[in-house]
Amino acid sequence: MTTFSMYSASIPVFKQILNSLLAILDKAETHAAEKKIDPNALLQYRLFPDMLPFTRQIQIACDFSKGAAARLGGLDVPSYEDTETSFAELKARIAKTLAYIDSVPASAIEGSETRAITTGSGEKTKHFTGQTYLFHYALPHFFFHATTAYDILRHNGLEVGKKDFIGTY
């Protein structure tokens, strides 16, 4: 019988998809150059007017992964400014996020299933246990924004498929 691991259910999953996004960003940058597309046409693209643009989707995916690592590890969530305006800057943000989540010891995350976790403030305050937070809040939000970023690029002609999104594990 194996035991459940909060670390294994979180950090490797975030790393897998963030690394996939890094590879997809490389492809998007190449695609824009080869097709002579202004990078901002992709970076600021929205699937629908009331949705956030590509750049913001990447920023939020990073925020949910670093936030989950910190909260599950009982640490303060690091704050990143949302100033990225290029593929290179988005790749740097993902790299910084990967470095941060790698710095959170597995031992700090293990056993966090029942840790009290609070997000937001004021009317937007939400209270969770660690396991509920991970499975019903952090991971769904992370995957939504990562998938939306992928979908924006795919919609704009980037030749990527499911394997590019899933990456290697």
Automatic annotation (TrEMBL):
InterPro entries reported for this sequence: DinB/YfiT-like (IPR034660), DUF1993 (IPR018531)
Species: Duganella vulcania
Name of protein: DUF1993 family protein
Any one Pfam family match given in the protein's UniProt record, by short name: DUF1993
Top-level taxon: Bacteria
